[in-house]
Amino acid sequence: MADTNTRDEEESVTRVRTLADLAKIAGVSPGTASRALAGNSLVNTKTREKIEAIAREHGFRPNQIASKLRRQKTGVIGVAIPLGHDVRQQISDTFFMTLLGYLADELTEKGYDLMLRRVIPAQDEDWLDRFIGSGMVDGVIVIGQSDQFERIEDVADGYLPMVVWGNHQEGQRHCVVGSDNRLGGKLAAERLIASGAKNLAFLGDTQPIEFAARFAGAKEVAGKLGVPIRALTTHLSPDRAGEEIAKHLQQIEGRVDGIFAATDTIAVTCLKELRERGIEVPRQLKVVGFDDLPISSQTAPPLTTVRQDIAAGAKGLVDLLLRRLGGEDTESLVLPPHLVVRETA
Amino acid sequence: MADTNTRDEEESVTRVRTLADLAKIAGVSPGTASRALAGNSLVNTKTREKIEAIAREHGFRPNQIASKLRRQKTGVIGVAIPLGHDVRQQISDTFFMTLLGYLADELTEKGYDLMLRRVIPAQDEDWLDRFIGSGMVDGVIVIGQSDQFERIEDVADGYLPMVVWGNHQEGQRHCVVGSDNRLGGKLAAERLIASGAKNLAFLGDTQPIEFAARFAGAKEVAGKLGVPIRALTTHLSPDRAGEEIAKHLQQIEGRVDGIFAATDTIAVTCLKELRERGIEVPRQLKVVGFDDLPISSQTAPPLTTVRQDIAAGAKGLVDLLLRRLGGEDTESLVLPPHLVVRETA
DNA sequence: CGCAAAATTGCAATCGTTTGCAATTTTGCT
DNA sequence: AGCAAAATTGCAAACGATTGCAATTTTGCG
Prior knowledge:
The structure is a homodimer.
Chain A: H1 7-12, H2 19-26, H3 30-37, H4 45-58, H5 64-71, E1 76-82, H6 94-109, E2 113-119, H7 127-133, E3 139-143, H8 149-158, E4 162-165, E5 176-179, H9 181-194, E6 200-204, H10 209-224, E7 229-233, H11 238-252, E8 258-261, H12 264-276, E9 286-291, E10 304-307, H13 310-325, E11 333-335, E12 338-340
Parallel strand pairs in A: 1-2, 1-3, 3-4, 4-5, 5-11, 6-7, 6-8, 8-9, 9-10
Antiparallel strand pairs in A: 10-12
Helix pairs in contact in A: 2-3, 2-4, 3-4, 6-13, 9-10, 11-12
Chain A binds a DNA duplex through residues 17-20, 28-32, 34-35, 38, 40, 42-44, 47, 62-72, 135.
């Protein structure tokens, strides 16, 4: 962006870098040039067309940084993905990237740019304040609460234009869009038990709020029906999950006949591991996942899973955010999960 | 961002919005406050610590928009995903999102922010000039050439800090990082034929340059070995691909015994369709994909595919871009694809 | 104590656009 | 022709930080 031309050279060359340059060529003031390019009705049609033609000829575009500063509006929404509990998790986690994709489409449609930031709270405590305080974004969407619930609550107290993808809890202060994870857990457990499972295992990390809620829902249903259920810690990063699942299956072989995976990614990895061990799904062991990613209909056998409506989630995040940008204090939006029965349970 | 407080209220409240506000409380000039927060050695240690403490106390952070304007540097890299040939393709296409994820990690590590823009060239011819001319980004990474080769060439002539994920062609002017698609196509055809296939089909859209190169490579090998190969147009969008593949399979049943899918996503959809028709892979029909996405090891049977090193691709894109930001005119980087033999061929 | 050098801090121009209000020009009517 | 109203355009402050250079203060030595 820095221009090495001296001032004198700049006066004489035809290169147009600023509105002031353009205005000089057009024989108007910079203010008129600015109004002309903005299509401001104050400017005479002939004058405006002349200025537009010169701008086209020189490939000139007004500097958006300067415009944002003057107008006090950036037109950019920040999307932060905190990786708190599992720093080995890549931003390329399938569910988050799918949601990000829908978010990008939704924001583009609303005329906003999307600025993506992956943050590691263990390395940068002030990741959210830093994003907000930078002044670079008009509002923030956080994808996943991770282990940052309190920090998000604190920031939400003083910053209205923020919405979080995650789990809504009674009494919380920040605005959330997310599935009813607890209900989803119930649906999963109900399905497993209805399919004949008598001993359940939950594969997931119960530290993150939303996974904890999924386990809690499953546990509640299992408890009511007198079916034992255990939680086997399984992390999201694929390399780690593979090893952990292998170990878990070794321990529980013959003792568990129903698995509730906290995510489809974990479920798919589990299916692969079961297949390698010659364990037949669902005859010998039933499996239910969570998310209903595109991959889930394509596994063999196709995965029974709890569907989150990701497109609706993205749309909800953007809709609520724009309302909050307009000054409204919106309630959280809890999306109902649905059981998608395929062939693994 | 606009503050409704009157000037007088602003003087009296302790809210600190600007460096000028902070400076006033600290009893120094705004310049000194700016230098203090930047850790500038010109500022006395005691003075700096006092200013830092007041900033912390008030949760103050310097406005990055103003800083960027003055310093003529944004610290943001623009990532554009043009969807030229298939406007129904979602930004959430698996390969692009996977690449995006790696890019985000790579850029974050280098201290840059990532601004994501999905563009539809049919609706906005000047999508690239507009991104660059906005002044919001220090450089641009384009993911996929789509049908925009000429436009990218034209822009590259006058804009150094741009790198494109795509196919490198002899004599082209813009800097590309991408796999040798032609070689990849050769590997795929070789594998199919070595596995006994005698009649090949290519499932993909041959309009995009990189897919055309994949088909060309396969065609070359098939031609040399006297094996017929046909191209069956299959688009990337999942809903469209499903229908097209179903129709193609109906047409070619019994006449084709080897399928080369332009992408893993197409291959996976194809596998599902074959399974539903009771066609055994690889005994009755062999399949090779392209990309080696995580899903490919998890299909049943696991997919034989041509692997693109996405992590290396992301790293290459960022490395070349930073070099070009530094003024260097780099050559394209062509990554060698590798055949990953699993069970579908 | 006086003075020169070093250190520290202040001033204000700068980045480039936007926009309220004043100045100028144009237009239309008597 | 003169004049008032309307239209158009210019001026310059503003957005908020950065930074070159000048002003001021501090320090140390003879």
